[in-house]
Every structure is written in C-alpha cells, then in structure tokens.
What does this fold into?
Amino acid sequence: EPGLSFEQRVDGLRAGQEVAYILHSMPKPTIAAVNGFAVGAGLGLSLSCDMRIASDKSKYGTAYAKVGFGGDWGTTWQLTQLVGEAKAKEMFFLADIIDAEEARRINLVNRVVPHDDLMTTTNEIAQRMADGARVSIRYMKENINLAVRQDFRTILDREAFTHIRCGETDDHKEGATAFVEKRAPVFTGR
It folds into this structure.
C-alpha cells in the first residue's frame, strides 16, 4: 500500500494472518465449507480449519507463483503438514489449480459432497461435534496440533494427562453409562 513502510506492511499482513492462527489454535473445532475457489489466502484460511468439506465444484491452489508472492496465511506450513513436502512444493512452484476430488485424494479436504448438499452436510458434521464430549474434543484438538511438532514421548505424556483429566468429567461418566445401557450419550460439556 502506498505510503506505508515495509515494516507497516509486514505488521498489517501479520494482523490479518492472526485469523488463521485463531482458527487453528482455538479450543473448539472449526470447519470450512468450500463452495468455490480456495486459492492463495483463501486456501490458507480453509487450511486453518480442522476439517474442510468441499463442494464437488470447488477448486484449490496456491497461485503465489503466478503473482510473484511467496505465500501467506500459513499456507506453507499447513500445506506441508497436510500433503507432505514434495506435494506442497509442487503446488507452490507450479501453482496449478486442482479440483475437489484431487484435493480429497491428497488429503487437502476431508470430504467432497454434491454442491447442493454442502451446507447441509457441513451443518450435520458441526452438530455431531457440538453434541460430542466437548472437553475431550478440545483435548484431542490440542494433542493433534502438538503432535506435528513434538516427539512421541511428549505426546504420550500429554495423552496420559488429558486422558485422565477427561475421565474426571461428567461427559465421561455419561459416555460410559450410555455405553453400558446401549443408548446414545447426552453430553453436557462438563
């Protein structure tokens, strides 16, 4: 932007990118419903979510190489985590646009659904998570986020802590009782 120093522009981009960090790190699960193009920053925003549900009409790509940028909104880190180093480099360097089925095949999205079913399916998945044991889901998200940058021993220790902590919740008691009684649990988030 004209008139802004280099540092001001970097700070401005960092402030915007905070949205990606919040989506990735917040305790609640997040879902992206992608019904069009998820390219560049839009790709980064969708990758920040825990799950991505794709319309069969959606498209994905980095596009940075086509406009002379190096990546933003966490796309270099997130894409590498999801698809591996070699595929991430290919997607960045060549900037090809891929369709929803290819995105699912390389683990970029969780599910591909017919375009007209996108929001219904996404809302059903969101409801299933909302009806789940929220404390344990929060710990699952934290542990999985840590797993990409911690060693196995650290994750084992973390799982031991969160497993026992979850065992102290009302939701665990309800889940165990419901299992024995052969009924669906009704979780309260406590």
User: Anything to note?
Assistant: The longest helix spans residues 6-25. The first strand starts at residue 31 and ends at 34. The radius of gyration is 19 Å.
